[in-house]
Amino acid sequence: MKEKDEVRAKKHLGQHFLKDEGIALEIVKSLKHTHLYNKILEVGPGMGVLTKYLITETAFETHIIDIDWDSIAYLKKNFPILENRIIEGDFLKLDFENLFNNESFAVIGNFPYNISTEILFKVLDHKNQVPEVVGMFQKEVAERIASKPRNKAYGITSVLLQAFYDIEYLFTVNENVFNPPPRVKSAVIRLARNKVQQLDCNEKLFKQVVKAGFNQRRKTLRNSIRAFKLKPEFLAHHYLNQRAEELSVADFVALTNMVEVN
Q1: Whole-prediction pTM
Q2: Residue 153 above 50 pLDDT?
Q3: How many CB atoms lie within 10 A of CB 181?
Q4: Among 2.40.50.140, 3.30.70.100, 3.40.50.150, 3.10.180.10, what is the CATH number of 2-193?
Q5: Helices (H) and strands (E) in the chain, counts
């Protein structure tokens, strides 16, 4: 029954369930900024391999959310201590405004790979309530999120998330520790909220400039952001002769301030 439940959930969510207890414990112990919160929300707990260690190895008030009814039923039966802290629903539709009375909380999970980036952008929308995230991702996605400038993996996701979070690639996870095994390697990363409360530029315009730059990443920024009108004094700036992947978050903030706001 358990394996059938897991396979059915995987087909619905694109999720691969971790079965290695040692890795599960290592993920839980990767939470380092615990002085900033006392609640944690686990996303996509499946059959509770992480949940077990969140309950037994930490002092967090643990809450879990899963969209799959079979997983919810299993967790209610096997983790009765969490009965009033189990949310059946879609994390991407979760009402953060009223969640935990606006108290800070961490997010952790072996995230469904088909929505893992969306999970982080949901977090980013509520960055001041979520000081830390530890999660399992497809390896290439994890590399993209954590990548620094002048790397092939560095892109839109890297810049937008690193604007507000310090991101660390923690460790790689092989395929054989999952049920069912994915066709790719996985990785665990940690996001820790940095001290930036707001960017020193128009944040909506910042996103537009970053996306435009990377949407034509082989071109210099002079060409990839040509749809934007630059202030005359910046038309010869050296940023325009570079590609998007060469610019840091701070550089993109500066570039955004070079653009005329209509």
Answers
A1: 0.92
A2: yes
A3: 12
A4: 3.40.50.150
A5: 10, 9
